[in-house]
Every structure is written in C-alpha cells, then in structure tokens.
C-alpha cells in the first residue's frame, strides 16, 4: 500500500541510516537493525519502540533509553522528560526530507531507487 521510512539520526538531526519497509510494518521491528553497530549516550524514540528487546539493546550499548512506556505496561518505567523533548529533531528531519517532492510523493517505483533518492537528500542535509 505504501512505503515506510525507518530513520536513525544523530543528535543534530543528520540522517545516519535508512530502512525501507511496506507501510503496514510496525516501527519497532526495524529498531534493532537501525541500532546495530551504533554507539551513543542516549536513544530517543516514541512509544512505538517500547519493547524489552529494544531496551536491552540500548542497555548493551551503554546508553540511556529515553522512550516513554506504553499505557499497557504493568510497571511504568521512568524516562527523562526534558531529554525526550529533543526527539522533535527526527521529526524535523522527516519534514526536511519531505521538502523534496520526489520523496514526498514517492515518484520512484522501485524501492532501491527511492532509497537512493533518500540518500541524495541526506547528503544535502549533511552538506
């Protein structure tokens, strides 16, 4: 039906890694692949990434998980609310990427062409 962009950025919003999936794929299924081989002090994500496997991976990275717990969690974890406010930098990165008309409307029919377009746009962000 559509394409979902899973994105990892650094603290300033510069894209580090993209994964493309179908629009129906849950966000948290790609988080471990995005975090693979990465280091950092903190990982900021929304409630969709609140899973035991992701939290354990972040702990192995020796980073702080700044992920709000889902409402269905029996034991609600604490997280840094002030640091979580910085999560908007990834939303700004998505908004900047979608300024490229080719990305916003998904002109490319093949996924590898679309991924290449995303990478070109990422170069522009880094530049």
Radius of gyration: 15 Å
Q: What is the H/E order?
A: EEHEHEHHHH
Q: Would you report the number of β strands?
A: 4
Strand order of the largest sheet: 1-2
In words, what does this structure look like?
Helix content is 38%, strand content 17%. The chain has a single domain, classed as Nucleotidyltransferase, domain 5 (2-Layer Sandwich), CATH 3.30.420. By secondary structure, it is an alpha+beta fold. The mean pLDDT is 91. The chain starts with a strand and ends with a helix. The protein contains six helices and four strands; from the N terminus they run E-E-H-E-H-E-H-H-H-H. The longest helix has 16 residues, at 111-126. The protein is globular and about 45 Å long. The strands form two sheets. A two-stranded antiparallel ribbon has the order 1-2. It has a two-stranded parallel sheet with strand order 3-4.
Features:
two-stranded parallel ribbon, Nucleotidyltransferase, domain 5, about 130 residues, globular, alpha+beta, 6 helices
List the helices and strands and how they pair.
Elements: E1 3-9, E2 15-22, H1 31-35, E3 42-44, H2 52-60, E4 64-66, H3 81-84, H4 88-97, H5 101-104, H6 111-126
Parallel strand pairs: 3-4
Antiparallel strand pairs: 1-2
């Amino acid at each position: 039906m559509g394409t979902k962009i899973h994105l990892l950025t650094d603290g300033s919003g510069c894209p580090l890694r993209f994964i493309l999936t179908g629009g129906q794929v849950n966000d948290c299924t790609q988080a471990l692949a995005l975090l693979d081989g990465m280091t950092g002090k903190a990982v900021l994500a929304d409630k969709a990434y609140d899973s035991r496997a992701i939290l354990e991976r972040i702990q192995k990275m020796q980073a702080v998980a700044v992920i709000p717990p889902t409402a269905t969690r029996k034991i609600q974890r604490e997280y840094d609310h002030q640091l979580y406010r910085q999560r908007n930098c990834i939303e700004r990165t998505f908004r900047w990427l979608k300024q490229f008309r080719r990305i916003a409307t998904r002109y490319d029919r093949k996924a590898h062409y679309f991924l290449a377009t995303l990478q070109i746009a990422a170069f522009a962000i880094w530049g």
